[in-house]
Design a protein that fits this description.
Elements (H helix, E strand, L loop, with lengths): L8 E11 L2 E11 L6 E11 L10 E6 L9 E8 L3
Parallel strand pairs: 3-5
Antiparallel strand pairs: 1-2, 1-4, 2-3, 4-5
Length: 85
């Protein structure tokens, strides 16, 4: 038997919800450049499965890695941390 690995999770903001059962979540990270040591901000977009269409643009959500659901979707919404007012 193989052991199950712990799934990756990220926290980010919902930037688009134009598709059915899919939202785009932008995750921001700050990194330090290896050579020049300047702090750089990086944004990564993830296509995330939202089964109940609960998320709204501006919400802060936690996403979990999952099996491939479509060509681009490999993540699902775990929790909605903060609702946009």
């Amino acid at each position: 038997m193989t052991e199950l690995k712990e799934r990756k999770s990220y926290t980010g903001k919902v930037t688009s919800k134009k598709m059915d059962k899919t939202v785009i979540v932008t995750v921001s990270a700050t990194i330090r450049h290896k050579r020049y040591e300047k702090v750089i901000s990086r944004d990564t977009k993830f296509y995330v499965h939202d089964e109940k269409n609960e998320c709204e643009v501006g919400d802060t959500v936690t996403i979990l890695e999952t099996r491939p659901l479509s060509k681009l979707k490999r993540w699902r919404v775990a929790t909605i941390n903060q609702r946009e007012a």
